[in-house]
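Pinned message: reference record for YbhB/YbcL family Raf kinase inhibitor-like protein
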Amino acid sequence: MKLTSPAFEHGQPIPSQYTCDGANHHPPLTISDVPREAQSLALVVEDPDAPMKVFTHWLIYDLPPSTQHILEQEGSLGGAEGVNDFGTRGYKGPCPPSGTHHYVFRLFALDTRLALPEGMKKEDVLAKLKGHVLATAELVGTYKRG
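Predicted structure (tokens):
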């Protein structure tokens, strides 16, 4: 399984329009090679360089396994959005307090739908997907405020 973005290459800077210094839209993503037996997808976007803990910027689950693109500003993705560490649902982009931070987009192909309500926390989603992961993909971007 692969996760890429037309906006930035793996390991490269995320354009500022996808951050708190820009429009704060989620970047467009492309998903390919999802296992045939997948019943749903989950996406977690985290900053492992945050000072207090691994900080969650975006959490989506129960995306259809047929999803090939997540377009910038796309409203309805066909899945459920969990609560990020800003305390809201949806995407909140990079906004590091200092230095260069890494932003890890992790995609999970699952052999089931999680069937969780909107607004779940990352810990609950990760606990529920245990034992159901068929494949994973990762895309990492960096960001440093100017």
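Pinned by admin. Summary line: The helical segments are 122-129.
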